[in-house]
Amino acid sequence: MSLHSSFARQSALAAALCCVALPCVCSPLFAADAAADSASDLNGVVVTATRTEQTQASTLAAVTVIDRADIERLQPQSVQDLLQGTPGMSIANNGGLGKSTSLFLRGTEADHVLILVDGVKIGSATLGQASIQNIPVDQIERIEIVRGPFSSLYGSEALGGVIQIFTRRPQGGFAPNFNLGYGTQQTVRAGAGVGGKVGDGWYAAEATHENTDGINACRGKPFPHGAGCYVYEPDRDGFRNHSVSLKGGYRFSEAWDADAQWLRTWGFNKYDGSYTNQSEVVDQVAGARLHYRPSKALTLTLNVGQSADLSDDYENRVYVDTFNTRRDLGSLQGDLSLGGGLWSLGYDWQRDRVNSTTTYARTRRLDRGVFAQWQQTFGAQSLQASVRRDDNQQFGGKTTGSLLWGWDFTSVLRLTASAGTAFKAPTFNELYYPGYGNAALKPETSHNYELGLRGTHSWGNWSLNAFENRIRDLIAYDASIGLPGNVERVRIHGVEAVANTSLAGWDLRGTATWLDPRNESNGPNHDKWLPRRAGRSARIDADRRFGAFSVGASVYAADDRYDDLANKQHLGGYALTDLRFAYAIDRAWKLQLSVRNVFDKRYETAAYYNQLGRTAMLSVSYQPAL
Question: Cβ(149)–Cβ(448) under 8 Å?
Answer without folding.
Answer: yes
